[in-house]
Amino acid sequence: MRRLTNQEVGNRIGLTHTAVSRIRSGQRRSSVSTIHAIAEAFGGDVELLVRYSSEPSPDHWVEYLERLMVTDGAAAVPA
Q1: Is the dihedral of CA 22, 77, 39, 70 positive or negative?
Q2: What is the pTM for the complete model shown?
Q3: pLDDT at 17 over 90
Q4: Each residue's pLDDT tens digit, 30-67
Q5: In sequence order, which residues have a C-beta less than 8 Å from that of residue 71 and are 6 or more positions away?
Q6: Measured between alpha carbons, how far is 17 from 7 in angstroms, rounded to an integer?
Q7: What is the mean pLDDT of residues 13-27?
Q8: What separation, in Å, do the N-terminal and C-terminal C-alpha atoms of the chain show?
Q9: Four-CA torsion 12, 31, 45, 63, nearest 10 degrees
Q10: Per-residue b/e over 4-37, b at no fewer than 16 CB within 10 Å?
């Protein structure tokens, strides 16, 4: 499976490709509405997205997002 581009992700969740890039890299925290848009567009678990987005380190957040956005929703929970 291929990694969706930032533009493709942005089109699905209503953000610019720049905003998606910052979210994917952990440089930007997501709002609750963005978290819900990600979960709806990619089948992610809202609870995990909220928990990971509030952690001090963005590692789990970035890993989970990448799994969602590469597999288009068939993500496994990061270890």
Answers
A1: positive
A2: 0.74
A3: yes
A4: 888 998 998 898 888 888 888 888 887 778 878 888 88
A5: 1
A6: 5
A7: 90
A8: 21
A9: 80
A10: bebeebbebbebeeebbbbbbebebebeeebbbb
**Confidence at 78, pLDDT banded by 50, 70, 90:** very low
The one-letter code for the residue type at 23 is: I
Tokens of 33: 């509405």
Distance (Å, whole) CA 8 – CA 15: 10
Amino acid at 42: F
Given 3-state DSSP classes, what are the helix, strand and coil percentages for the chain, each rounded to the nearest 5? Answer: 60, 0, 40
CB within 8 Å of 66: residues ≥ 6 apart = 3, 24
